[in-house]
């Protein structure tokens, strides 16, 4: 057997790799080897259309030339630096990030992962307020480190107890399946009133923050209704809680505005960014106001890691911002989102099983139901449709046990690729429904 054939690689993976992946525990192909733009290639030479943007970190397209050039230059200059001293690239990156953040969010702390940035944001909120209680909606995902996981209510708690104290779930604005059986706008944000009644009831009098995604990605591409974020901020302020927005999936141009909160006219106390912030290199940030930074630093707050301000990662971050601004990623996201959402809407016209089409820009989803009246989640259908597409080279993710299909095409995706993906989805629904029912469901 040729060394580095897929079979050989998988044998070695079975022997040496720790299986703790999020969506897939068995060791099986494909094994990816290269990528460019919106496509990746595996070791057998098969090409895949990547509507997951890698792990959502390749939203600029795989191996964007601006990013790879910056990385190559950093390799020839300085890859890593002392984390207690400043280096040129991190100062440049902090200034550039402040330039795209909503007004007033100015001071950035760099870290490696999305989870780190959320952990840091919670620590900062605790230091600033003197409280420790933090709440997050029940469909949230904030990462898999301890505090971030304790605020990740979309799942992944099993076997991890006891979770850190002071993490509270709120009722999420999941309008398609409102847990309170309300309808927007008549509900008048009953989910928020109920949540804060519960938070107040549980509180020991030391609230610190609410952390939320402005559009819940891993929880099922769930978009809060207009005005929800603003009302949330008011309720936080009444209690002296900071509002932390986890914009790791939604920020930096991906939804068609620089940040999702721009569309709502809300400036939170902190924003975290990660994912495509490094153009594929691991770097994240928490950005806050000068006043919050001042008070927290005066209290003796220290939070750094060995690689937190590495010049290589910061150079990739600068290059990523060059692309986001220079190529007008928000405009590209709007155009791609409009075209692909048009396809999804057309599929929803054709297939009763598509109960809801959601999201915007480069983060879209469909929710599958057994019928539109009962809205019973169609888990098996989603799994079968995903499998059909995957076998034919289209990658996207399933959420909510398969009843939500999430599409995250990179901004490099062409009209032809969008149309091809939509055609494959159409084939998948037609074939799968025919197999399930004996005939296509129109
Ligand atoms: C909204 C959000 N926050 C945080 C994270 C965690 O980021 P990381 O996996 O880099 O720790 C993710 C990862 O998918 C995410 O989607």
Rg over C-alpha atoms, rounded to the nearest angstrom? 22 Å
Cα distance spanning the termini:
48 Å
Shape label: globular
Major sheet strand order: 4-10-9-8-7-5-6
- Share of helix among residues? 25-40%
> What structural class results from the helix and strand content?
alpha/beta
Biggest β-sheet strands, sense, barrel: 7 strands, mixed
- Give the CATH topology of the largest domain: Aspartate Aminotransferase, domain 2
Order of helices and strands: HEEEHHHEHEHEHEHEEEHHHEEHEEEH
Task: Give the tally of β-strands.
Answer: 15
Explain what you see.
It is a single chain. With 442 residues, the chain is α/β, with parallel strands linked by helices. Helices cover 38% and strands 16% of the residues. The strands form 3 sheets. A 7-stranded mixed β-sheet has the order 4-10-9-8-7-5-6, with helices on both faces. A 4-stranded mixed β-sheet has the order 1-2-3-13. Strands 11-12-15-14 form a 4-stranded antiparallel β-sheet, covered by helices on one side. α3 (65-77) packs antiparallel against α10, α11 (329-350) runs parallel beside α13 (415-437) and α12 (379-391) packs across α13. The longest helix has 23 residues, at 415-437. It is globular and about 65 Å long. The structure holds pyridoxal-5'-phosphate (PLP). Pyridoxal-5'-phosphate binds at residues 113-115, 118, 141-143, 213, 217-218, 246, 248-249, 274.
């Amino acid at each position: 057997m040729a060394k580095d054939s897929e079979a050989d690689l998988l044998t070695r993976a079975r022997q040496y790799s720790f299986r703790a992946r999020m969506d897939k525990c068995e060791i099986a192909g494909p094994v990816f080897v290269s990528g460019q733009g919106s496509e990746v290639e595996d070791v057998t030479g098969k090409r895949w259309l990547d509507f997951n943007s890698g792990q959502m970190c390749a939203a600029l397209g795989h191996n964007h030339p601006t990013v790879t050039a910056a990385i190559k230059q950093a390799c020839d200059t300085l890859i890593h630096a002392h984390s207690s001293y400043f280096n040129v690239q991190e100062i440049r990156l902090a200034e550039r990030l402040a330039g795209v953040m909503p007004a007033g969010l100015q001071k950035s702390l760099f870290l490696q992962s999305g989870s780190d940035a959320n952990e840091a944001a919670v620590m900062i909120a605790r230091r600033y307020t003197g409280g420790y209680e933090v709440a997050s909606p029940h469909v949230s995902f904030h990462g898999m480190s301890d505090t971030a996981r304790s605020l990740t209510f979309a799942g992944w708690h099993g076997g991890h107890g006891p979770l850190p104290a002071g993490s509270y779930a709120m009722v999420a604005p999941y309008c398609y399946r409102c847990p309170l059986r309300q309808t927007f706008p008549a509900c008048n944000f009953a989910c928020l009133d109920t949540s804060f009644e519960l938070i107040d009831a549980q509180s020991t009098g030391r609230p610190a923050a609410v952390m939320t995604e402005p559009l819940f990605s891993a929880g099922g591409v769930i978009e809060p209704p207009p005005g929800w974020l603003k009302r949330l901020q008011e309720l936080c302020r009444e209690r002296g809680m900071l509002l932390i927005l986890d914009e790791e999936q939604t920020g930096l141009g991906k939804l068609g505005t620089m940040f999702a909160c721009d569309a709502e006219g809300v400036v939170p106390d902190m924003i975290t960014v990660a994912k495509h912030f490094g153009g594929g290199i691991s770097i994240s940030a928490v950005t806050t106001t000068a006043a919050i930074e001042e008070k927290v630093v005066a209290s003796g707050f220290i939070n750094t890691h060995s690689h937190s301000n590495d010049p290589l990662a910061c150079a990739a971050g600068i290059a990523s911002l060059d692309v986001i601004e220079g190529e007008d990623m928000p405009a590209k996201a709007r155009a791609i989102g409009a075209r692909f959402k048009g396809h999804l809407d057309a599929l929803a016209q054709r297939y009763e099983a598509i109960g809801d089409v959601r999201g915007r820009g480069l983060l879209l989803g469909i929710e599958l139901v057994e019928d539109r009246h009962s809205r019973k989640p169609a888990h098996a259908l989603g799994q079968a449709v995903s499998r059909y597409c995957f076998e034919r080279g289209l990658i996207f993710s399933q959420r909510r046990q398969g009843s939500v299909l999430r599409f995250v095409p990179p901004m490099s995706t062409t009209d032809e690729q969008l149309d091809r993906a939509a055609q494959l989805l159409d084939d998948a629904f037609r074939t799968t429904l025919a197999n399930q029912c004996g005939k296509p469901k129109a």
